[in-house]
Structures are given as C-alpha cells and as structure tokens.
Amino acid sequence: MAKSPDFLTAPLVVQLTDSHLFASQESRLLGLDTGYSLERVVEQVRIEQPDIDLILASGDLAQDSTLEAYQRFHDATASLAAPARWLPGNHDKVDVMAAFCAGTDLMDPVLDLGAWRLILLDSTIKGAVPGRFEPDQLELLERALSEAPERPTLVSFHHHPVPVGCQWMDLLGLQNPEALFAVLDRFKQVRVVLWGHIHQEYDEVRNGVRLLASPSTGLQFEPGSDDFKVGIQAPGYRWLRLQPDGSLETGISRVEGVDFGIDFNGSGY
C-alpha cells in the first residue's frame, strides 16, 4: 500500500526554550529584558524559517508563572503563524499553564507530524528545580511508542537526562533518567531526545539516539562551568527538519550584534 502524502513530507520544527518571561514588561532577569530577547529571536526565526510546521516551546516559558507571562509568550510567537505545543519547566506552574491553555491543543502530549511522532512529557517536580518522571508520564511514553512502531519518534521534555559537563547544572537535571531510558531502549523507532533547561547547546548520540539541547531565547549558561556562570553566547533557537526516512537535519541560530544589557556577574537566577 502506498504511503500517504503526509509520510513523504519533511516537517520543520522550531524549538524555543527557556524564555523566562514576567508578567511585567519592566522586570529583568540579571539585567536582561527577556521579552525583548524573545522578540529578537522570533524576528530571526521569521526571517530564516518562512515555512514552519510546529513551534515547540520546551519549558520555562515564564519566570513568574503568571497568566500574564503566558499571554506575553503567546503574543510574541503569534507572528510565526504555525501550530505550537508547550511543555512545562521548573519555573512554570503546570496548573497555571494548563489554565491558560484550556480549550486549545497547546499542551496535547502526542502529535503526529509527517512520518514522525512527537511525544511531549512533563518532567517537573512541583516546587523543585530538578526533574523527575512520575509513573503516569512513563506510562504515557510507553503507550505512545507502542501505538506507532512504524513512526520515527522525537521525545521532548524540559530537564536533561544525561550529564552535560556543568557541575552545578548536573545536580539539577532529571533524577530518574534510568527509568526514562528503560523505556526508550526498548523502542527502536526513537530517533531524537530533545530538552531545554541547560541554556546551552548540546549534541551527542546514545545508543543511536540523538540527544539535543538548545540555547535559551534569553540568558545563556557558560558551558563547562563548575559554578553558576552566565554565558557570553547570544540568545537563539534550534530548528529541526524531520525527514520521512527517519533521519534528522538540525542546527542552531543565534541573534548576533545586540547588547542585551546582561549582568555577567550574577550568581544565580
């Protein structure tokens, strides 16, 4: 039987992560106007990626987790005119995000896009910075993988499941990565695991699966740092082209030539 036309397309996904917006336009994060930096990243996306199939916002959309902050994120990204999916990070309050998204598909956890399946998980622990997968999320993952063995699959969540080389940040990642990989290792269609949280680029391979993380649309963290350190790298985003044969093309783009007024001596956020 011939495959449907959808299976022959190569959808483009744009990941926006860790925007840390506030309700107030006057608020700053270590000197950074996170709303302005997001706007500049979105402007760059609009210029570089004219045909987007999905905007994937992978957590910490808000710093103060207010309805107003989520409205600001929604408004700032609306000009991209593409479907979107959101998942929560440790600075987001899941119930507030869900209240904002009520009546939409923004937080639907499973999406088929071209030949691919995307599975979006909640790795947050209420009131804590590190992450953990509760049984319901692992069950969702296993069920979504079992139902579509023929579809190459991208799995996304907020917290990093492997050490990334920042001593301080590696204490704040996923607390039960072995539970995640116990599921993923049983399903050969998994091609990509994608996360946010670390505010820096990461690209490695584990058991044939691409492990990816991406710059924040705002503040960056210095790679390889033992203690908290703000990076000098510019805000940016990741694009992913999902090929129908299960292969992936991906890259990072950053906003250059802009002074965002960041306090590089900050000791935390």
From TrEMBL:
GO terms for molecular function: cyclic-nucleotide phosphodiesterase activity; metal ion binding. It holds the Pfam family Metallophos. Keywords: Hydrolase, Iron, Metal-binding. Residues 13-200 form the Calcineurin-like phosphoesterase domain. SUPFAM superfamilies: Metallo-dependent phosphatases (SSF56300). It comes from the Bacteria. The keyword Oxidoreductase does not apply. InterPro entries: Calcineurin-like_PHP (IPR004843), CNP_phosphodiesterase-III (IPR050884), GpdQ/CpdA-like (IPR026575), Metallo-depent_PP-like (IPR029052). Belongs to the cyclic nucleotide phosphodiesterase class-III family. This is Icc protein. The lineage of its organism: Bacteria, Pseudomonadati, Pseudomonadota, Gammaproteobacteria, Pseudomonadales.
